[in-house]
Amino acid sequence: MTAILDIPLETISGGKASLADYAGQVLLIVNVASKCGLTPQYEGLERLYEKYKDEGFAVLGFPANDFAGQEPGSDEEIASFCTTNFGVAFPMFSKITVVGPDKHPLYRELTAAIPVAPGAESMRARLQGHGMTPNPEPEILWNFEKFLIGRDGDVVARFAPDAAPEDDAIVSAIERELFASE
Q: b/e for 135-164, b at 16 or more Cβ within 10 A?
């Protein structure tokens, strides 16, 4: 098991946690936001979770207010929003910072493990088209960037923010990790 599993986390309800709580599972870690154009991805993330959770898979949501103030709420407000609007049942965690000098240690490890999100060029161009200066690699580009962690605790894939949760590349990577030993 890797050190990433031992990084202290806090659940959205205030409980202590770590990725070790999910040891042996395949994890899709996503920085989420409630007021983003990509917020509807919660629906696809929940469908993925429901489809594969009995196979040893979990989506883990990490709210972050790092991009255009798109996650301004408290943990309680975020939890209520996700449940009420999207029926989110996958585990959610306390709001963290995913970029810059105050970046949470989890995201420091994730971005160090896979510094580039393949396919992020179109999202980078869209941000520039809106007059924004995208973060340089290896930083998180925007809300809803995704990291896949294999059963062994290793970070195995990174996906651009605008890659839909049920995109073939994401589903194939999840299934490869879930069913690799069968």
A: beebbbbbbbbbbbbbbebebbbbbbbbbb
